[in-house]
Amino acid sequence: MKTRTLGRRGPRVSTIGLGCMGMSQSYGRPDPVEAMATIHRALDLGVNLLDTADVYGPFTNEELVGRAIRGRREEVFLATKCGLVPKGEDGPMGVDGSPAHIRSACDASLRRLGVETIDLYYLHRLDPHTPIEDSVRAMAELVEEGKVRYLGLSEIGPKTLRRALSVHPIAAVQSEYSLWTRDPEVGILPACRELGVALVPFSPLGRGFLSGGLRTLNGLPPDDFRRTLPRFQDKNLGRNLDLIDRFAEVAREKGATPAQLALAWVLAQGDDIIPIPGTKRTKYLEENVAATDLSLSASDLARIEEAIPKGSVAGERYSPETLSLIDR
User: Fold this and answer.
1) Known catalytic residue: 56?
2) Which residues lie below 8 Å from residue 74, measured CB to CB, with a gap of 6+?
3) How far apart are CA 127 and CA 73, in angstroms?
4) pTM of this structure
5) Which residue has the higher pLDDT, 119 or 219?
6) pLDDT tens column, 38-64
7) pLDDT tens-digit readout, 96-141
8) Which residue of the set 27, 56, 177, 284 is catalytic?
9) Angle at Cα 248 formed by Cα 245 and Cα 252, nearest 5°?
10) On the CB side of 30, how many CA atoms lie within 13 Å of its CA?
11) What is the helix (H) or strand (E) element at residue 168, kind and residue range?
12) Which helix (H) or strand (E) segment is 86 a member of?
C-alpha cells in the first residue's frame, strides 16, 4: 500500500482509508460479521486509516471498530469525531462543540473503541454557539493529556480553519469531495494547501452513485438515506444517470470499473488528498484498493472532465436542514 502524509508535518498513512459509517447506519441493515471481515481485510491490504464517529449508529460504529481492531491496534491509524448530537430517533442532528461536551465525548469514544489514544480526533461540525477557538483549545488539552495525537475539523470553511490554526496545529480537514461534489476546490482545498493541512474526502464515490450500479431507488432498503437526498430524486436522478453513463464509458476504455476511475481521479488531484471510501463489503474494499495502482494521464483527466463537467451534477448534496450545519 502506498502512503501519503497527513498534513505538512503529520504521519504517513495509507493512500486511501476506510470509512466505516455505512457498516452501522444509512445504507440498509448492518451486517457485523461482514463488516468485521472488511476491516480485517483492509488491515491485511495495508489500509490503516479507519474513520468512524461517535454519532454513527449512534455510538455502535465505534464499538464495532473497537472490536475489529482488538489485537491489531498497532496496525491502525484511528480517526473518530465528536460534536454531532442526535436529538432522538429519526430527529434532526444538533451540534455541540462546547469544551465540556468535547471532553466527555472523547472519554466515551475511548471507552467504546477500547483504546488509550485516538490518532486523529475531528470536530464533526462547527458549533455556531461556541467559538472555534474554544473548541480547538479543549481538543488541544486532550492532546496534552495523551488522549489524542492529532486534531482535525470536518466540513469547515477557510476562515474557520485559519482561526483554529491560531490555537493548535490541524492535521486534516474532512469534507465531501469527488467528481460528484467539487465544492472544496473553491475554498477549503486551496486554504488547506496554503496552510499545510491534508484534505480527507468522504464519499469520494458520490454515495455509491459513481460506481455505476445505482440506477433506481427501487432496490434500496426503506431506511437508506439516499432516498432523502435531492440528487437521487426524480429529474435530478435522470440527469445524473446521463453523466454516469458517459463516465462509465471512459472507465471501460481505461480497463477499470467506474468506482476505480472515480477514486483514481480524486487521488490524482494531489498527494495531500487522502480519500476514505466507505464500504461494508470486502469485495468493494478490494476494488477500491486496486484504484491506488491506476494512473491517469492528462488525456484521461480531460476525458473524465468532459464526461462529468464541474457543476453538471443536478441537485443539492443534502436537504436544506442538513446543509445548514455546514460551515461554508
Assistant:
1) yes
2) none
3) 31
4) 0.95
5) 119
6) 999 999 999 999 999 999 999 999 999
7) 999 999 999 999 999 999 999 999 999 999 999 999 999 999 999 9
8) 56
9) 140
10) 17
11) none
12) strand 84-86
For 235-260, what is the mean pLDDT? 96
C-alpha cell recorded at residue 233: 430524486
Question: Residue 124 is which amino acid?
Answer: H
Q: Which of 276, 280, 286, 282 is closest to 50 using CA atoms?
A: 276
Are 122 and 90 a contacting pair, CB within 8 Å? Answer: no
Who's near 244: CB < 8 A, 6+ residues apart? Answer: 209, 210, 212, 258, 308
Peptide bond into 58 cis (omega under 30): yes
Rounded Cα distance between 104 and 291, Å, is 39
Taken in order 297, 300, 305, 308, the sign of the CA dihedral is: negative
Residue 92 has pLDDT above 90, yes or no: no
For 281-312, letters b (16+ CB in 10 Å) and e give bbebbebbbbbbebebeeebeebbeebbeeee
The burial of 8, by beta-carbon neighbours within 10 Å (0-12 exposed, 13-18 middle, 19 or more buried), is given as middle
Cβ atoms 46, 16 nearer than 8 A: no
Distance between CA atoms of residues 223 and 246, nearest Å:
30
Cβ atoms of 259 and 204 closer than 8 Å: no
Cell numbers at 201, concatenated: 474526502
d(CA 34, CA 16): 20
How far is residue 316 CA from its own chain's centroid? 18
DSSP codes, 77-88? EEEEEE-EEE-S
Going from the C-alpha of 93 to that of each of 64, 311, 320, the distances in angstroms are 22, 28, 13
Strand partners, 85: 94
CB neighbourhood size of 326 (10 A): 17
